[in-house]
Amino acid sequence: MEKIRKIGIFNNKGGVAKTTSVINLAYGLQKREYKVLVVDCDTQENCFTFFMAGKSASPVLPTDYPHIFHTTWERYLHVTEQEWETFDYILFDLPPTMSEEVRIIIRHCDVVYVPTILGEFEISGLRKVTDEINKQGVKLGGVFVTMYHAENDAEIIEEFRRILQNRLMKSVIPYSKTVRESQKAGLPIEAYFRERGVPQTQTSWKIVNAYESLTNEIMGVCS
Predict the structure, then answer these.
(1) Whole-number mean pLDDT of the chain?
(2) 0.85 exceeded by the pTM?
(3) Strand 61-62 relative to strand 68-72: parallel, antiparallel, unpaired?
């Protein structure tokens, strides 16, 4: 049996598309027929609520997607090792804080990825986040940019590349107003486009292609 990949998505800054990334990564992995468990570690439980499709006596709940299951961190603590070994990937959506509980969750992961928006104050914050991940003895998979505006961010992303070097991932997630629409509909972005019959030739599919790229990039690091 292949090793389970336990992946944390973390930044101690809110509003950087952590939950959006977890949802769409889970969807990308299940498309490849991997069995995925999404663990919502935030007390707001946005990710858990998004996937809610039914109730179960088990701490692990089903979703509308046959290969995606979900739970909260509190419930996950009651999942047996035998149960979570049935999954190929476990994705942890961590809250935007650096508490002792978050440190425990980070140490439980095999690798942690850090989503970030581009801005003058983000670099110093990223140093603290990546240093903390290293301090916990966990591999930093990389930092990836979200909500990218090509017309505004081309110069600053080059500055990020210069400072972060190979820690900055190749995949860049563009800004899209569709994110809010898809979440309101309770669907990952690609599923939302397919339900609405949006042609893949439209520029709105750029965000789907970007998450496809990110999924492949993460799978390559975690293999």
Answers:
(1) 92
(2) yes
(3) antiparallel
